[in-house]
Amino acid sequence: MKKLINNAEDVVKEELKGIELAHPDLVKVFYDPDFIVRADSPVQGKVALVSGGGSGHEPMHGGFVGKGMLDAACPGAVFTSPTPDQMLEATKAVDGGAGVLHIVKNYTGDVMNFEMAADMARDEGIEVESVLVDDDVAVEDSTWTAGRRGVGLTVVMEKIVGAAAEEGRSLKECADLARKVNNQGRSMGMALTSCVVPHVGTPSFDLPEDEMEIGIGIHGEPGRHREKLAPADEITEMLLDPIVGDLPFVEGDEVLLFVNSMGGTPLIELYIVYRKAVELLEAKGIKVVRNLIGPYITSLEMAGASITLLKMDEDMKKLWDAPVKTAGMRWGI
Amino acid sequence: MTITRDDVLIWIKDYARVVEENHIMLTNLDREIGDADHGANMRRGFKVVLEKLSSVEEKDIGAILKSVGMTLLSKVGGAAGPLYSTIFMKAGNTIGAKMEMEVGDWAQALDAGINGIAVLGKAQPNDKTMLDALYPALDALKTAINNGSSCGEALQKSAEAAHDGMLATIPLVARKGRASYLGERSAGHQDPGATSTYLLIKSAADVWADC
Asked: DSSP readout, A147-209?
């Protein structure tokens, strides 16, 4: 294992300290239990958005705390769900009296821990709603599994719903909007290489030099299938076709196209994928009206990419364009 | 014929020892069909449970079990944290402020804990989860009590049923948790959660053999 770390067990704490020193204008960091909140929280009268998950997906979620996006983020150990005490304290710290929305990616551990935290927060008199993100079309049979995983759409949901909360919408309106985003968005990813979890020290799975894993999750979970490495255009088609067919996205739809790096894949390659994705969508009469390109929801140093599509309406476009000021995403301010 | 507060403390300490001895085995089972952290997470949680036990050892059984549950909730993480926490907290609530309990109280506590897990995990029998060890353990315990078995005998039957339930997870296809993403590929592997819960039930039967 070759990593720029000190001790594997100190990785998350030292990262948090770095975030605290780098962005005092944006966030405050709390320790034991660990969580990050907006510097100006609690914002009175505003619905507060709380998310969280295992570490190793940076900039998600801590990098999305700030004006126009999340009010708090709870980091777990690398690839391990955070615990309810973190979520409860974060929820209490950001509640501005208008209620708190928990944005939860659909993994068994995350769902249970957030559910317990929401119950505890309600016992303390805080109004809490939860929304699940489960956009990964790579999980085919969701009746007999834990269901589809929450992946790239999480980033898009946090931006859009964060803007809605900022403009003063109610908890119910924010939760309904989040569910609408989830219903209209789909993702799929692929890996060129595995990744090494610091406290494990060896790759999460073995991927031979000439093979790739299609339909990967964000923790190195297995995908739909493994096959021989192919040119970028073919890979783009392999990811985009299941996404388009699943919703389905149809002629005349206006979409946001998000091409994400799993951490190790550089922008030069993401643009190659983006170019082909636009071409394939245009051929189907689907119009790309907004985009996001870069490493936003990663799996440590894994090389690979994911594609997310969201069917947009005028309201979502307006919310997407609204000002946001976080470490990981910033425009209009 | 009773299980005292001190017996409960002995059981918790014994299970912490069992987790320490078996954490690598549990993590290896989890590596095959999950994300290779079950043993590590349980070990981290029960280490802190042991550290905190001295601060509650003068309290009643319910308070001790609830304290263990709260520690597990904040230290284990993943799915095992809330699930193990639920067993201990529901069991603690059911037993309440008693300094000693009958085996029938234990059966009721286990029943409440198992129900809590089923609700939280939304799991059914044969989903390849910890419930596949726990349901048989509870059934065997209740049957033995109804048939007039002694406390020690009933707990022994319970542990044997948990063991059979654990082994019966091997051919199952997982329908809950991260193993479910493997689909058919999850068959042929013993469930790590069923294994750690079997060890929990067995530990109770071992240390309370003379109850």
From this structure: -PPP-THHHHHHHHHHHHHHTT--HHHHHHHHHHHHHHEEEEEEESS--B-TTT-SBSS---T
All domains in chain A, ordered by first residue: 8-184 (3.40.50.10440), 185-320 (3.30.1180.20)
Give the residue from B97, B75, B70 showing the smallest Cα distance to B86.
B70
Question: Sign (positive/negative) of CA torsion B170, B198, A222, A111?
Answer: positive
CA A101 to chain centre: 15
3-class state of residue B151 by DSSP: helix
Q: Residue A222: pLDDT band by 50, 70, 90 thresholds?
A: low
- Report ipTM for this prediction: 0.78
> Among residues A16, A116, A133, which one has the least CA distance to residue B77?
A116
- In sequence order, which residues have a C-beta less than 8 Å from that of residue A192 and are 6 or more positions away? A207, A212, A229, A264, A265, A302, A303, A304
Residue A42: CB atoms within 10 A of its CB come to 19
What are the residue boundaries of the structural domains of chain B, listed by start? 3-207
- Please give the interface size between A and B, counted as residue pairs whose CB atoms are below 8 Å apart: 78
**Do you know the residue count of chain A?**
333
Chain A environment of B35 (Cβ under 8 Å) = 79, 219, 221
Report the C-alpha gap between B184 and A280 in whole angstroms: 34
Position B77 confidence tier, pLDDT thresholds 50, 70, 90: confident
Terminal Cα-to-Cα distance of chain B (whole angstroms): 5
- Which neighbouring-strand residues pair with A196? A203
Opening angle at CA B149, ends B144 and B154, nearest 5: 55
CB contact under 8 A, B175 and A144: yes
B3-207 topology per CATH: 1.25.40
A49 vs A45: CA distance, rounded Å: 13
Is residue A23 flagged as an active site residue? no
